[in-house]
Design a protein that fits this description.
The complex is a heterodimer of chains A (455) and B (219). By secondary structure, chain A is α/β, with parallel strands linked by helices. Chain A is built from 15 helices and 19 strands. Chain A has an eight-stranded parallel sheet with strand order 9-6-5-17-16-14-12-10. In chain A, strands 2-1-11 form a three-stranded mixed sheet. In chain A, helix 2 packs antiparallel against helix 3 and helix 11 packs across helix 15. Chain B is α/β, with parallel strands linked by helices and 219 residues long. Chain B folds into two domains: 83 residues, Methyltransferase, Methionine Synthase (B12-binding Domains), Chain A, domain 1 (Orthogonal Bundle); 123 residues, Rossmann fold (3-Layer(aba) Sandwich), CATH 3.40.50. Chain B is built from nine helices and five strands. A five-stranded parallel sheet of chain B has the order 2-1-3-4-5, sandwiched between helices. In chain B, helix 5 links the parallel strand 1 and strand 2. In chain B, helix 6 crosses helix 7. The chains are: A alpha/beta (455), B alpha/beta (219). At the A-B interface, helix 2 of A face helix 4 and helix 5 of B.
Chain lengths: 455, 219
């Protein structure tokens, strides 16, 4: 595989191009051309297709695309380019499994296949903004979910009374504080070795994550450290600095990407291609051992509409069939927590990604914009569905998803706000109140009638 | 081809983002009508159509950007003619827009820029990673009506508050309408920092800009 030093060399020696030209003259026309060339079509009636040939055509289109675009480096205004052969070689050598955590809590996250009978990797938690006062309790509650293999620690955007801001010293302090809270929460849950794999969602800048990764604060290379690009297929020196540091430390690096459906990639077809191409960027530029995707809709953000399910499902299939790296997805529900609509939306998304060969993560309520809007019960739901539905095929998933969408599709535009952690949990015991328990039980019962099993 | 047909074809060329065809048709139309009519009767309805199609999800950002490029190319040909004729396109208002400090996300902001242009605003796009003082400096320089700030991360939205703080500190708060937007921003945050409005989507942002400007002018 092309070495990281060679990547850095290309970042400073590659072809010079303006960011706008990269978008307008390279990415946009190429993505459009490839959608036509490979006859990639979106059918709203099939949000979770079971067409292997479609998945493979998307993969080939992504390969062609990345061989043309490479990755744009914002700071140097140059393009890191790769030949098709270099990309294929990287795919061949990419790690098919990643190990997280230590001791009895250590786990392996393997690549799956579509319609796989294996239980998917269950990752819980979210980077939703959370107040400092409840963050520790949240992590402890996540750690207590025995089916959860790895955890995301919440995003805390304050340090005491100081509001965090990207690039500011407060962000560094907030990041360090969250690392400490994350490890302490897992210790209290009796799972001190559990892998934290969201790197630090409290930290936007590379310098803050690097500061928070000091083992003194509880960080380990066996945690997972996400490195983010910019939309689409761009990276900056802050992220490349993270890669330089994390790869020297021997840490698990996660390639994360949130391609924008309706953005430069175009519609669902083009976005599926670009989402798949991020995998190549991840292996080569981010030096990733695992991959996370979260395509978002340009207007309504929610990822539970048919076109968004198509994007995540088909790109998941393209990667799982042709690459097989550890790959998971997170979705954004329109509805807030503690509502039936949330559980319906979450079920649709989880079934789409699980049957497509991906690992699963909690679907974030309220598009992740409400402080304390994520609940531990969301994680229980994720894991319980993931285990109960092991072996579900794409065809079965598609049928159930269509019925689920009938009940929530109209609610996406004006979704119920739901309730926050403070409103529906006893913070002292971290137990949900009666009303939430009732809503959850009812949702599970109703979903059971549609063929969804929980374990 | 009649004048109406030429203008209709020009509109179609813009909707399809066909730069060369729209340039040819501008030249052709100028032989028949004045430059202002070319814009008002041929180009503006076309861009409105583009905006509507984008809002309804019929087209996506690439199609909208290509239409904008065709519009810009046509305007490049029309501007000298407008000057010669002593005419100008009436503008609704002036907006200074950018993505806040430490945030380099631009897609959402670019969509708002395009829709504002389409709606008839004069737009000064500062780009990304813009400190509060630059927003205000530019607004003062161009005598703007609106300052619009985008932030996509929880750790950068705080820089939207900075803009309000700077405006208050320099005694300029009442001079400008301040709009905020971005993936993590919501109405609660806009209220908390004292912004005048929050647009959940680009379309909503532009609608709000028009409404607040009309209200400020006593409309």
């Amino acid at each position: 595989m092309v070495s990281f030093c060679e990547i850095l060399e290309r970042a400073t020696r590659g072809p010079i191009m303006s960011s706008r030209d990269f978008d307008m003259k390279v990415l946009i026309p190429k993505a459009r051309e490839l959608v036509e060339k490979y006859k990639i079509r979106y059918d709203p009636e099939t949000p979770c297709p079971s067409d292997d040939d479609l998945a493979d055509r998307i993969y080939q289109a992504a390969l062609d695309l990345y061989a043309d675009t490479g990755t744009y480096v914002i700071d140097t205004e140059r393009v890191i380019q790769f030949s098709r052969r270099e990309i294929e070689e990287a795919v061949y050598e990419a790690p098919r499994e990643a190990y997280f955590g230590e001791g009895p809590d250590r786990c392996v996250f393997r690549g799956r296949k579509p319609d796989d009978s294996e239980i998917p990797h269950c990752h819980v938690g979210s980077g939703t903004d959370t107040t400092e006062g409840v963050a520790l309790k949240m992590v402890e509650a996540y750690g207590r979910i025995s089916k959860a293999k790895t955890v995301s620690i919440p995003s805390v955007t304050a340090f005491g009374h100081l509001k965090s801001a990207a690039g500011s010293p407060v962000e560094t302090l907030a990041g360090i504080s969250m690392m400490r809270i994350g490890r302490e929460g897992l210790r209290r849950a009796g799972r001190p070795g559990m892998g934290i794999i969201n790197h630090m969602s409290s930290c936007a800048q590379g310098i803050s994550t690097i500061a928070a990764s000091n083992p003194e604060f509880g960080a380990r290379p066996s945690d997972g450290w996400l490195v983010a690009p910019q939309a689409e297929l761009k990276i900056d020196y802050s992220s490349l600095n993270q890669v330089a540091y994390l790869s020297s430390w021997g840490a698990n690096i996660g390639q994360e990407a949130g391609p924008i459906m309706g953005g430069y990639a175009g519609g669902p077809e083009g976005t599926a291609v670009v989402t798949t191409a991020y995998c190549f960027h991840g292996i080569l530029v981010a030096r990733a051992t695992y991959h996370l995707t979260y395509p978002v809709h340009i207007t309504h953000v929610a990822s539970t509409t048919p076109e968004m399910l198509y994007v995540v499902s088909t790109s998941g299939q393209a990667v799982s069939r042709n690459v097989g790296v550890p790959y998971y997805a997170l979705g954004y529900a329109a509805a807030g927590s503690a509502t039936k609509q949330y559980f319906y939306e979450a079920a649709a998304y989880l079934l789409a990604i699980q049957s497509s060969g991906m690992g699963i993560e909690d679907v974030h309520p309220n598009k992740a914009v409400v402080t304390n809007g994520a609940l531990p019960i969301d994680s229980e739901f994720t894991c319980s569905l993931g285990h109960g539905m092991a072996g579900i095929t794409r065809k079965e998933a598609n049928q159930i998803i269509k019925r689920l969408m009938e009940s929530y599709f109209d609610g996406i535009k004006s979704p119920p706000m739901g309730r926050t952690l403070n409103e529906c949990y006893d913070i002292r015991t971290m137990r949900p109140d009666e009303e939430l328990r009732r809503t959850y039980d009812e949702a599970v019962r109703e979903l059971g009638k549609l063929g969804i099993r929980f374990k | 081809m009649s004048t109406d047909e030429t203008l209709k074809e020009l509109g179609e060329a813009i909707v399809h983002g066909d730069k060369e065809r729209s340039s040819r048709l501008v030249e052709k139309a100028l032989g028949k009508v004045d430059p202002l009519a070319v814009i008002q009767r041929g180009m503006m309805p076309a861009m409105e159509k583009v905006g509507d199609r984008f809002s309804s999800g019929e087209i996506f950002l690439p199609e909208m950007l290509m239409a904008t490029e065709a519009w810009n190319e046509a305007m490049r040909l029309l501007k000298p003619k407008l000057l010669e004729a002593g005419e100008s396109v009436a503008k609704i208002g002036t907006v200074v827009i950018g993505t806040v400090q430490s945030d380099v996300h631009e897609i959402g902001k670019n969509i708002v820029v395009t829709l504002l242009n389409t709606a008839g605003f004069e737009v000064h796009d500062l780009g990304v990673d813009i400190p509060a003082s630059k927003f205000i400096g530019k607004a003062e320089e161009v005598n703007a009506d609106i300052i619009a700030a985008s932030a996509i991360m929880t750790t950068t939205m705080t820089y939207q508050r900075d803009i309000l703080d700077h405006l208050i500190a320099s005694g300029l708060r009442d001079k400008y309408i301040v709009l905020v937007g971005g993936g993590v921003v919501n109405q609660k945050w806009a209220d908390e920092i004292g912004a005048d409005g929050y647009g959940e989507t680009a379309v909503e942002g532009v609608r709000l800009a028009k409404e607040l400007l009309t209200r400020k002018r006593g409309g």
